[in-house]
Amino acid sequence: MKNNIKLLALLALGLAACEPEFDKEVSESGFYSAGDADFTTYVAVGNSLTAGYADNALYLQGQENSYPNMIAMQFAHVGGGDFTQPLMNDNIGGLLAGGNKIADSRMVLEFDAEGNPSPVNLDEEPTTDITNTLEGPMNNMGVPGAKIYHLVAEGYGNIGGVGSTANPYFVRFASSASTSVIADAVAQDPTFFTLWIGNNDILSYATSGGVGVDRTGDTNPAGYGENDITDPNVFASIYNNLLTALTGNGAKGAVANIPDVTSIPYFTTVPYAPVPMDEGTANQVNQGYADYNQALSLFVLLGQIDEEEAQRREIKFQAGQNPVVILDEDLTPLKHPVTGDDIPNLRQTTSEDLIVLNASSFIGTPAGEDPTQINGISVPLGDRWVLTPEEQQLVSNAQTQYNATIKALAEQHSLAFVDTRAMLAQAAETGIPYDGGVLTSTYATGKAFSLDGVHPTAKGYALVANAFIEAINETYNSTIPEVNPGAYPDVFIK
Amino acid sequence: MIKRTYISAIVVLMTTFAYAGGYRVALQGQKQLAMGHTGVAVINSAESVFFNPGGLTFLDKKITISAGISPIFSNIHFQNSQFGWSTEADNPIATPFNVYAAYKVNEWMSAGIGVYTPYGSGVEYPENWEGSHLVNKIELAAIYIQPTLSFKINDKLSIGGGPIIAIGSVNFNRNIDRSMTNVSGERANVTIDDSGVTAWGYSLGLAFRPTEELTLGLTYKSEMKMKARDGEAKFHNIPSTAPGNYDNVTFDATLPLPAELAVGASYMINEKWLVAFDYNRVYWDSYESLDVYFSNGTDSHNPRNYKNSSVYRFGLQYIASERFTIRGGYYYDESPVQAGYFAPETPRNDSNNFTGGLSFNISERFAIDAAFLFIHFDEVDASYDHYQENGQNVPFGGSYKNNAFIPSIGVSYGF
């Protein structure tokens, strides 16, 4: 009998260890197909979007939910190897350089006692110091802030150049002080790559309200300022060099184009007429602009401006919601016919103007000690707060040319092409449905964009990952599974 | 002796169980389990307190006592090919138990008591797995205590019954939704925990012996509603400024333990062979929704919409010698879960169940009863479609493949 019990116990253990198996296990190789591509070594090259930047910071959870990391986890089903990223210390975000803060902590949504939410910086000090360099190479070569010409810039990871020619994020994992992003990427001998670059070549101009210079026609990036628009020919030439380098060993890959920067919440959240006013206040404010308005008709008589511009420049507040007063450098410069003093280039915003997100906490604040001097009302907003139609046109011109280049070179190199521009347009226009609702470009509540109004949430990055996967499957006859945007976080509450 | 066993069994019960349609656990006697858990019309020991309280007066012996435990080794494998998900649950080993005693007061009346565990569930997925918004971990248990009286109406007919007090406990953890974390990246989740929940019900049985060889039986157990009141609800990793109160929260919830009707027949073919059939009907339609009401004003509604289900049981007994009795059986267990309500906390489809076992008579009075049950589920594609986000149903599904192996051991004593 004892033997029987032993036998039974043995049988129990044997069968308990017998895990149920599916006829076809998704976790086993062969369930999905890599098609014509080899995903063994995947390297992602790009800027903040590739790094997983969100909420105005790079932080751990954002990196874990970067679109390259999502893609790499799905590549693992078809032979993809490990995917390393230059991980931050924690979820605080921000950077130190030798103990000094050089980038702020991430933004989170804070609810006050009444339950009203507002975006704030996490009140913790960054801990990730760029002097603590990481052992590379990193499969994720996304460098926040990088423009196209930075990818080929030698010394971009030289700590001595931080603040001028180098990038603190690249300093953390550059293989040497003299290397470039593309050199470190190619050195990994990737079998597959993604490249999403060029956003910052127009975005920094746009987010700075167009304070930079359109460098179209200037082919020497060495002279560019940080808020300038990169020359489309420079873009095309470097883009081709990047693809030539990345495909040099026969690697396949996917490239993405540049979305319309002007449809992101950073530009669409603050309305062009954000100032509520009663009639009494409006009359009072208008008095301050009476001389200016009168002078306009004089300049029309003098033939210096036409009637249309005079109307455009007229400052008039009334009861209800009012546009703000701005300085617009594209208006005709005028001088007082008698005193010769400059007449300010004032006008009020129209629905064509895009007011930047940060202006929401600036408009309506006192400009100084004098309580009648109010920003956006009695004191005009400077260039940095508004992207005017003329400035938008410059952005759009460059973007159109960049995208033509990306599309043409993708075809030329037989790469998968990801139309992120169309995707963002859909988010802005109708929203993109997912299994838990619709992701839109509405600030915070739309869930597609993080609190900086520029970078996607993890849900938004999941849409990007799926767009890449779809294009890759189509181009290389692979069957890589998609990710589920609903399973990823969006806006974080403090 | 009974008392001591009972107490130690409760200690063992710190881990709980799974497996049978819904959260029903059909492991109430080793001899019966070995025969496909038939027993409504098989009257040979104190297990009749559970299987058919009407049959106690037909027991030959003055006193019969039996006790046993049935550790459950269960496995759940889940995958979703759309997203490439693959997850295996790491279920705790659960230990349902049973203790019965019957005493022949006189020729026409018997008394008995049973302590057994007919409902329970123990499922544990890897933390934050793909379905963590539905369940990370659940432990449900109910212990039934049933004093019983049985009366012989005549030589062929006997009836019996008794009140049941059910003592239940629940511990259930899941994530708040599919993605919420605090600023440290830890997933927001809630654990509800309550124990010592009681409910009253009853069991009635009837046994009929038209001939020496044939026995017919019928047993009914009433529904009991386990009402957890002011249980503990612990919220973890909720963002600190999120509106709402998440400290010192309690919860109310009600879980039905459904009524069950069993009819059966057994036939003694000759001195060695006995064959038995049972049919069980479990009235699962009382389980419409798992609704949890929290004291902070929030609630959670989880439609279940179970349907009544049937179990078809077949068992065979062979008395090989004075010392050995060998048993075997099979049953088919219909799942009460309807399409679109396949929740991973009880991921069960229809199952084929294979049983076997033997009794070894150490002496005239004392026997050891061993049994095993293997539960085989076919691979099933199923989903739970009634989880909501933003007022919209978000289905969660894929393929499930489960099995369970349950060895069971007990002792019988009678004179």
UniProtKB/TrEMBL annotation, chain A:
Source species, domain of life: Bacteria
GO MF annotation list: hydrolase activity, acting on ester bonds
Organism: Sinomicrobium pectinilyticum
UniProt-recorded name of the protein: G-D-S-L family lipolytic protein
PROSITE patterns: PROKAR_LIPOPROTEIN
InterPro entries the record matches: SGNH_hydro_sf (IPR036514)
UniProtKB/TrEMBL annotation, chain B:
Pfam families in the record: Toluene_X
Membrane topology: Multi-pass membrane protein
Keywords for this protein: Cell outer membrane, Membrane, Signal, Transmembrane, Transmembrane beta strand
Annotated signal sequence range: none
Membrane-traversing stretches: none
One Gene Ontology CC term in the entry: cell outer membrane
GO molecular function: long-chain fatty acid transporting porin activity
Location of this chain's protein in the cell: Cell outer membrane
The organism's place on the tree of life at top rank: Bacteria
Family that this chain belongs to: Belongs to the OmpP1/FadL family.
Protein known as: Transporter
Organism listed in the record: Sinomicrobium pectinilyticum
